[in-house]
Design goal:
The protein is of the alpha+beta class. It has eleven helices and 23 strands. 21% of the residues lie in helices and 31% in strands. Helix 9 crosses helix 10. The longest helix is centred in the N-terminal third of the chain and has 16 residues. InterPro entries: ATP-NAD_kinase_N, Diacylglycerol_kinase_cat_dom, Lipid_Phosphate_FormReg, NAD/diacylglycerol_kinase_sf, YegS/DAGK_C.
């Protein structure tokens, strides 16, 4: 939604734009001009939309220099701030004298300031994610745009796993208008967990977050740009942050016993988790590693025993089978408070509780080929796993594959590129408010379980020949076997968004 612009003085003056004499008018959030004397052809009016096409403006003597980021033609002042084919440019407006330049420059800066753009950002760069390109992306793609926009910043690189979580937990939030992650999705997840561990978590979690894709998956950045009709690119993600638009974002509490983890992207068990995690040995291939390993996995398609209980969203009450209710609702075995975070410390925020009136649990029984719960449409830049997902509707989108021929599964995975796979009769697709996963062993095995993956990180693993205990290995927050519960907290976080 466009922000209402304050009433401002209309400025009109004879100037030169890119060395051409024109009559220029600054009205509201738009700079417009036409060559002196009017006429046709070259006399056509041209314009710049400050909100959607201008990074910043600086005064250089008699000249106003606009740094632009506009669609094809827009950077030359031809108007049209559409999303396609944006590129950087410059429009130079030469005033009659320096006093006029200062007067116009102040007016333009005031109007840019009224847009609510961030002025100071903490930028966390992961130099190890994806193809290890985070540092170069920051230097070559991020820095030129934010400097042209006049945004002040502090850059900090992550040194080890959970470093971003530590940064967010101890950060002086008064110094910044947002926290930006130049990384894959995992660093943003760490930041969310760090903010929610703070004593002032209620204030901390409202600090706007931003994501600039520099990882393997990049599902959050892809989802945000796609929802606004913007092409997926690093520069478009940066410009979305500069513009300062924000939206609410659901946060999911993932809980087992006394252990709690906060998720903003997805949780998977079965095929997709196996492919995501077991393909790490091929990380040098970039995102192509996922398709490559999927084909390898099809040679020995796994199915997993287990059960999923869920509270359906309105309209999905007929999915699955009803679960017998006790006087206290379904016994989940999940502790409602006093949970600890991924470091074993008491959380600032213990997550949402489920109201008694909402405890209308239903269930699906395995075996399962793939279990997927998504908070946003894209799991990666080329996989629309949850096409109906919304950022702040208070629900997770579930996509469950049970009985499906092996090579039909391959077709479904490739149809995930545009989300059409959910139309298959092999896929049960629905929305839920809460989920309880009871993971079991692989079909045909008396010892081996599977992998449960949340936001690209293993949280439980049972494929080592025995059910694991929480904390057995770094990154394994939870045990494979005991129930894991997910509950959605609607719109808890805030994230920069193109519109």
């Amino acid at each position: 939604m466009a922000r209402p612009q304050p009433q401002a003085e209309v400025l009109t003056e004879s100037v030169r734009v890119n060395s051409t004499e024109v009559e220029a008018t600054l009205r509201g959030g738009e700079l417009a001009w036409r060559p002196a004397g009017g006429g046709n052809g070259e006399g056509q009016e041209r314009r710049l939309e400050l909100e959607s096409e201008v990074l910043g403006c600086r005064v250089d003597g008699r000249k106003l220099k606009f740094a632009t980021f506009a669609a094809s033609g827009g950077d030359n002042g031809k108007g049209g701030g559409g999303a396609a084919n944006r590129r950087r440019g410059e429009v130079v407006v030469e005033m009659e004298d320096e006093d006029a330049a200062v007067r116009w420059g102040n007016a333009i800066r005031d109007r840019l300031a009224s847009l609510g753009r961030p002025k100071r950002l903490l930028i966390i760069v992961n130099p190890y994610g994806g193809k290890r390109s985070g540092r170069s992306i920051f230097q070559n793609d991020v820095l030129p745009l934010i400097e042209a926009a006049g945004v002040l910043y502090t850059m900090q690189e992550t040194k080890h796993r959970l470093h971003a979580q530590e940064i967010a937990h101890s950060l002086d939030l008064r110094k910044y208008d947002g926290i930006i992650c130049v990384s894959g999705d995992g660093v943003m997840v760490e930041v969310v967990n760090g903010l929610l561990q703070r004593e002032d978590w209620e204030t901390a979690i409202k600090v706007p977050l931003g994501i600039i894709p520099a990882g393997t998956g990049n599902g959050m950045a892809r989802s945000l740009l796609h929802a606004s009709g913007e092409p997926f690119s690093i520069s478009n993600a940066v410009f979305a942050i500069i513009r300062g638009h924000k939206r609410a974002l659901d946060v999911t509490s993932v809980v087992q016993g006394n252990t709690r983890f906060f998720s903003v992207l997805m949780l998977t068990w079965g095929l997709v988790a196996d492919v995501d995690i077991e393909s790490e040995k091929y990380r040098w291939m970039g995102s192509a590693r996922l398709e490559f390993y999927l084909l390898l996995r099809m040679l020995n398609l796994r199915r997993y025993n287990g059960r999923i209980l869920f509270i359906p969203a309105p309209g999905y009450e007929d999915v699955g089978d009803p679960v017998e209710q006790t006087t206290n609702g379904v016994s989940t075995g999940i502790q409602e408070d006093g949970a600890t975070d991924s470091n074993g410390e008491t959380c600032g925020y213990v997550g949402p509780s489920i109201k008694e009136a909402d405890r209308r649990w239903r269930s699906l029984n395995g075996p399962f080929v793939s279990v997927w719960f998504g908070n946003v449409p894209f799991a990666s830049e080329d996989a629309m796993a949850a096409p109906k997902a919304e950022f702040a509707d208070g629900y997770l989108d579930a996509a469950i594959i049970k009985d499906c021929p092996r090579w039909d599964v391959v077709g479904l995975m490739f149809q995930m590129k545009d989300g059409t796979y959910v139309n298959s009769p092999c896929v049960e697709y629905f929305k839920v408010k809460a989920i309880r996963i009871e993971p079991g062993l692989r079909v045909g095995s008396s010892t081996k379980g599977g992998i449960i993956d949340s936001d690209g990180e293993v949280i439980a693993r049972g494929d080592d020949g025995s059910h694991s205990r929480a904390g057995d290995e770094p990154g394994h927050l939870m045990a494979y076997g005991p129930p894991i519960q997910l509950t959605v907290d609607q719109g808890l976080a805030t994230i920069f968004s193109p519109r």
